[in-house]
Design a protein that fits this description.
With 397 residues, the chain is α/β, with parallel strands linked by helices. The chain contains 9 helices and 16 strands. It has 2 domains: 4-185 and 304-394, Aminopeptidase (3-Layer(aba) Sandwich), CATH 3.40.630; 191-299, Alpha-Beta Plaits (2-Layer Sandwich).
């Protein structure tokens, strides 16, 4: 019988090696769809451990199997993302990014390291558990259309098909040594809104002879906010925000085109589709009322992420066994998005959070910031926790 203490000891014995792996990954980040060397590095480690796997899945993805006794009994899939972000790192650490303008500012280096540690431990225990563990190192979580859908198209959810799936994500709002769970709806869908407002540009002192595309763009932005305040069902969280407006004119020049870019997020697929219709209709009509035209391009992003209640319940109970009840929290709903949602739409899944902060050490910077870092003690915790959760999922039919 495998005990929590057995897993903790194994994770502790690997901790120094895992920290070195994380630091290498952190120092050598690669952007979405460009993870050539990251794929080679991960594959090299797996080969050195004699763990069978395939590369080049859905881009630079890696997939492998660890078969325990009675491998057809239950199949569990584990996923970690491997890409980085276009951010200039400000941390002054020995493992600072060597690739200027690219940084693991979302913790994917930690995700990858924890899954590597989990694979190493589970492979050593394969004669002690029943079922199969399918592990996925996924590229391009940070950029549409996303690596998850590319891997799904490549067949990662087949041969064998997973019965359950899990992934963990770093959480700088939570101290290292803790974890968080939420059954049901957890993270929003995410679509990119692109509006191109066009008309006859010209001298700003002659508004009667031109089309004021800037005014039209401003009125479109204001009008679209009413979709959230007046059209969205009150019970469905919804966000429509615009973060970029490009009006390349001058003090006295109205441009012929204004570009508006934003994001739409929600938790219901039917309402999501309807909202897209409202966005298109409103933007076109408001532009027309100002004598302008508006081209609307909506790039569909990730679906909303829903954690299966049964799978998440098993995972949370297992986490309490491993970490202690006082170190397991309930997570709040988030309007941020996550590519893992594409897997969770097809497989009963649990996406949970791993605490990585350390107030005393000043490790508190948020995700997607130039100062993001983690308390590396979280790597040992994350490896042991994912291993223990995997064993508990496999033993539950």
């Amino acid at each position: 019988m495998i005990l929590t203490e057995d897993i903790k000891k194994q994770a502790a014995s690997l901790s120094r090696e895992l920290v070195d792996i994380r630091r290498y990954l952190h120092a050598h980040p690669e952007l979405s769809f460009e993870e050539v060397n990251t794929e080679k590095y991960i594959s090299g480690l797996l080969k050195s451990w004699n763990v069978e796997h395939q590369t080049g899945i859905g881009g630079h993805g890696i997939v492998g199997l660890i078969k325990g006794k009675n491998p057809d009994k239950k199949v569990l899939a584990l996923r970690a993302d491997i890409d980085a972000l276009p951010i200039v790192e400000q941390n002054q650490v020995s493992y600072k990014s060597l690739n200027t303008g690219v940084m693991h500012a979302c913790g994917h280096d930690v995700h990858t390291t924890c899954l590597l540690g989990t694979v190493r431990i589970l492979d050593s225990l394969k004669d002690s558990f029943e079922g199969t563990v399918k592990f996925l190192f996924q590229p391009a979580e940070e950029k549409l259309p996303g690596g998850a859908i590319k891997m799904i198209e490549a067949g990662v959810l087949e041969n064998p098909s997973p019965d359950v799936m899990m992934a963990q994500h770093v959480y700088p709002d939570l101290e290292a040594g803790k974890a968080g769970f939420r059954p049901g709806m957890y993270m929003a869908s995410s679509d990119e809104i692109n509006l191109f407002v066009r008309g006859k540009g010209g001298h700003a002192a002659m508004p009667d002879k031109i089309t004021d595309t800037v005014l039209a763009a401003a009125e479109i932005i204001v009008a679209l906010q009413k979709i959230v305040s007046r059209k969205a069902p009150p019970a469905i969280p919804t966000v429509l925000s615009f973060g970029k407006v490009v009006a390349d004119g001058a003090h006295n020049v109205i441009p012929s085109e204004v570009v508006i870019r934003g994001t739409f997020r929600t938790f219901n697929e039917a309402w999501r589709k309807k909202a897209h219709e409202f966005i298109r209709e409103t933007a076109v009509l408001v532009a027309k009322s100002q004598g302008a035209e508006c081209e609307v391009v909506i790039d569909n992003g990730y679906p909303f992420l829903e954690n299966n209640s049964a799978v998440t319940g098993i995972a949370r109970a297992a986490a309490e066994e491993f970490l202690g009840k006082e170190n397991v929290i309930d997570l709040d709903l988030r309007m941020t998005a996550e590519d893992f949602a594409s897997f969770a739409q097809q497989v009963p899944a649990c996406f949970y959070r791993l605490g990585t902060a350390n107030q005393e050490k000043g490790i508190t910077a948020g995700l997607h910031t130039s100062g993001f870092d983690v308390d590396e003690k979280a790597i040992e915790t994350g490896t042991g926790l994912m291993t223990w959760l995997s064993l508990k999922q496999l033993e539950t039919l």
